[in-house]
Design goal:
The complex is a heterodimer of chains A (395) and B (361).
Chain A (H helix, E strand, L loop, with lengths): L12 H9 L3 H28 L30 H35 L3 H15 L3 H13 L8 E3 L3 E4 L2 E4 L1 E4 L4 H23 L5 H22 L4 E4 L2 E2 L4 E2 L2 E3 L1 H27 L3 H9 L4 H31 L3 H4 L4 H12 L2 H30 L8
Antiparallel strand pairs in A: 1-2, 2-3, 3-8, 4-5, 6-7
Chain B lengths: L3 H5 L5 H13 L2 H27 L7 H5 L7 H13 L8 H18 L6 H19 L15 H28 L3 H16 L2 H15 L8 H26 L3 H9 L4 H31 L11 H8 L9 H32 L3
Helix pairs in contact in B: 5-8, 5-14, 5-15, 6-7, 6-8, 8-9, 8-11, 8-14, 9-11, 10-11, 11-13, 12-13, 13-15, 14-15
Classes of the chains: A alpha+beta (395), B mainly alpha (361).
């Protein structure tokens, strides 16, 4: 019989296990068994401890009435709604602060990085000091400091005014607001985000193969959004600018931010901006000087070199790091619990304290964060496959 | 004339260096405009700060002096509260114990920072000192009167929890990193689940698990000490990040090193211990130092779960009814402490990186 021909019975059972599990299958199965046994034991202990405390393990409490107020919420919530809705309100608050944190920290970080790269030695030192100072002190300390600052503003009657456009008082900050009709931002902002994504995804295949396809797609997306705004204007729901106005005892109009939200957002943005600035600097420095010289030899101008040669290569380093910086910011937003902003972790903490169902509540947060991270890393893997250097050959 | 040292010296004399910098700053009108703007903004920010922190500040006296109109920073408050911020609720007459602990830790840090002292003996010194310091703080034997861990606080607590967190995380992280790199599929999957779960969730959630769930999952009576639970949370959290740092070192070791070890007839365990780990760990020492800085700063989260670490004692000090609301002074003081430690250590890490790169092997 030929040696490589399959035998009558194919590979044996043990052989399959061995190739499936790798070396030392028995040890591995033993460890796995140990981990499972310990988890089961812990689970039994937890349920027993909960029953002893008069609690029913499980997620039924999510439908019970929650009798606590939430300071502010991005979705409608009032005491008496269910715990599930309270947690959703917390989730919406986390999403709100994380979204604006990511947007604003990218902008501030880019500005800081450009100031540092501008070549003025004095400016570079100041940028360096800013980054070192932020990265050398605890984030929580920075949040406490911002809270102290926002609480130290005078009462509404003597609110500090910024050119009459924005007001700062001990009840928070009021900024000029851009609105659309009288609908709340939580209604049209997600709609617009969805429209933008759809336009981008729909426009890409139409424009593929042209020069500057990405830029054209972005312009197309912008045009679709502008059309949507124009259409809404015809219906009488056009864009509005709402400037805050100071009355005797209150400030009317504008976008009011609570001191908690304002200090959390400021703290997170300033903290992340230092990281973002470092990421952008390291990305641009990761492009070898030979690339600048080669582009110069080809007759490209400095801005062309930066835009067409350096930036695309720097992005390969920058984008994965930016993603992890966004994830960090989202995780750091959980420090809201220390300064009284009702984010997901903070509401979960209150829920755990009032219901005693700490295990389930914490389990829910962990699942949410795990999903977020898993989704992000799946996206990142796709991105990596697209931009990875291909070994010298064109595809 | 002795111009030689200046002409041939590679480092320009300070005066010349300053001229060079000035030359760069003044060269172009655009640069000049930027420089003037920067100076103006700096002056706008620094002058009020100088007035507050020095010119109008109250250095001596009581709370009454600080409440006077136009008074700036209240450094007298800091003088009054210094010992509380540094040592928390530790009994004042026993303050020599935490002070000694901080001094011993600082000495040990300096010794460990010098590559000439790196040896197995250093590990033994650490293994003896860390529990020794915990015992010194705890007391309850000989002439030392017992002090409950609830009363520990301030700088020694922050330093001890972060140091012990790194130390205990190390064996755990090493195991996880090796398991994640191994061909043993089940162990690899378990290690990935452990590391990625911990890295996905915020530290505060890990602390909640350690504070609230761990005591329920264990037979009752175990883990009653709050600080111990927090320490376990910090350790487990640190171990996931440390595992990834160690794994980054393992990845740098080329396949040929394993093959060469196998050709010498070494077992896979001995290949790891004698060939791979010494090289892999050496590569990542600076990264480990940076992680330690991050952990030191992150132990401030203990304030959220009601442990009086350095940040929390600072916050509590300004809540004293006699000296109410001097948060800025308290935060500034601990910020200087945190920054001094972390900046010093990160400069050391840079120095070490260069040194290790200079002399490989």
């Amino acid at each position: 019989m030929h040696p490589s021909a399959p035998g009558p019975q194919g590979p044996g059972f043990l052989f399959t296990i061995r190739t499936g599990l790798g070396p030392r299958p028995l040890l591995q199965l033993f460890v796995l068994g140990g981990v499972i046994a310990l988890s089961v034991l812990a689970f039994l202990e937890i349920t027993a401890a909960m029953r002893q405390a008069g609690l029913t393990p499980g997620f039924a409490f999510l439908w019970q009435k929650a009798n606590f107020e939430i300071g502010e919420s991005a979705i409608a919530y009032a005491a008496g709604d269910s715990y599930g809705r309270a947690l959703l309100a917390g989730l919406a608050n986390t999403a709100k602060v994380a979204f604006w944190g990511c947007v604003l920290s990218s902008i501030l970080g880019l500005v800081v990085a450009l100031l540092g790269l501008a070549g003025n030695p004095l400016l570079r030192r100041i940028v360096r000091a800013y980054i070192d100072l932020i990265r050398g002190t605890p984030l929580l300390l920075q949040l406490f400091a911002w809270t102290t600052l926002f609480q130290s503003f005078p009462a509404v009657r003597q609110a500090v005014s910024l050119f009459g456009l924005a007001y700062f008082s001990n009840r928070g900050a009021v900024l000029p607001a851009i609105g659309l009709g009288d609908r709340p931002a939580s209604l049209w902002l997600p709609g617009f985000a969805l429209l933008a994504i759809l336009a981008f995804l729909g426009g890409r295949p139409l424009l593929r193969g042209r020069r500057q396809a990405t830029a054209l797609t972005l312009i197309f997306t912008l045009a679709v959004l502008l059309l949507a705004v124009g259409f809404l204007s015809l219906l009488g729901e056009g864009p509005t600018l709402d400037l805050p106005a100071k009355g005797g005892f209150n400030i009317r109009g504008g976008l009011a931010l609570t001191p908690e939200f304002a200090s959390l957002l400021t703290g997170l943005v300033v903290n992340a901006s230092a990281t973002v600035a470092e990421i952008i600097r390291s990305g641009i420095e990761s492009v070898r000087p030979g690339q600048w010289e080669a582009a110069k030899a080809l007759g490209l101008s400095r801005s062309q070199t930066l835009r067409l040669v350096v930036w695309p290569q720097a992005l390969r380093v920058i984008i994965p790091l930016m993603t992890s910086s966004y994830l960090d910011l989202t995780k750091n937003s959980s420090l809201a619990v220390a300064i009284g902003y009702p984010d997901l972790v903070s509401v979960t903490n209150t829920t755990a304290n009032t219901t005693g169902q700490a295990v389930e509540a914490i389990f829910l947060i962990m699942i949410l964060y795990l999903t977020l991270n898993l989704a992000t890393s799946l996206l990142m893997n796709r991105f990596h496959r697209r931009v990875a250097l291909r070994g010298g050959l064109e595809r | 004339m002795t111009v030689a040292p200046f002409a041939s010296g590679e480092r320009p004399v300070p005066a010349r260096r300053i001229l060079q910098v000035l030359d760069r700053v003044w060269r172009r009108p655009g640069e000049l405009a930027i420089t003037i703007c920067v100076f103006l903004v700096a002056a706008l920010a620094l002058v009020p700060f100088y007035r507050w922190a020095i010119a109008d500040a109250v250095f001596h006296g009581d709370a009454r002096a600080c409440e006077a109109d136009g008074a700036g920073a209240c450094w007298a408050f800091l003088g009054e509260k210094l010992r509380f911020i540094l040592f928390g609720f530790y009994p004042p007459e026993e303050h020599w114990r935490p002070a000694l602990a901080v001094a011993a830790l600082a000495l040990l840090f300096v010794l460990s920072a010098l590559p000439r002292f790196w040896s197995g003996r250093l590990l033994v010194v650490w293994a003896v000192t860390l529990p020794g310091l915990a015992l010194l703080l705890k007391g309850g034997f000989g002439l030392l009167r017992p002090v409950a861990t609830n009363d520990w606080g301030g700088l020694p607590l922050t330093l001890l929890v972060s140091t012990a967190g790194m130390a205990f995380a190390f064996p755990l992280a090493l195991t996880m990193a090796l398991a994640r790199q191994s061909d043993m599929r089940i162990l690899k999957a378990l290690a990935i689940a452990y590391i990625e779960t911990l890295r996905a969730v915020p530290m505060i959630v890990v602390l909640y698990v350690a504070m609230l769930i761990a005591p329920m999952a264990l037979p009752s009576g175990l883990l009653v000490d709050k600080l111990l639970r927090a320490q376990i949370g910090v350790t487990i959290f640190a171990s996931a990040y440390l595992a990834e740092v160690i794994r980054a070192g393992l990845v740098t070791i080329p396949r040929g090193q394993y093959d060469a070890g196998a050709a010498l007839g070494l077992s896979s365990w001995r290949i790891q211990r004698l060939i791979v780990l010494p090289q892999a760990l050496r590569v990542v020492i600076p990264a480990i130092v940076n992680l330690a800085i991050g952990l030191l700063l992150n132990t401030s989260l203990l304030a959220v779960i009601g442990i009086h670490d350095l940040l929390n004692t600072a916050r509590a000090s300004a809540a004293d009814p006699n000296w109410l609301g001097y948060y800025t002074e308290a935060y500034l003081f601990v910020a200087v402490l945190y920054f001094g430690i972390s900046h010093g250590v990160s400069r050391y890490s840079l120095w070490l990186e260069r040194r290790l790169a200079r002399q490989p092997g």
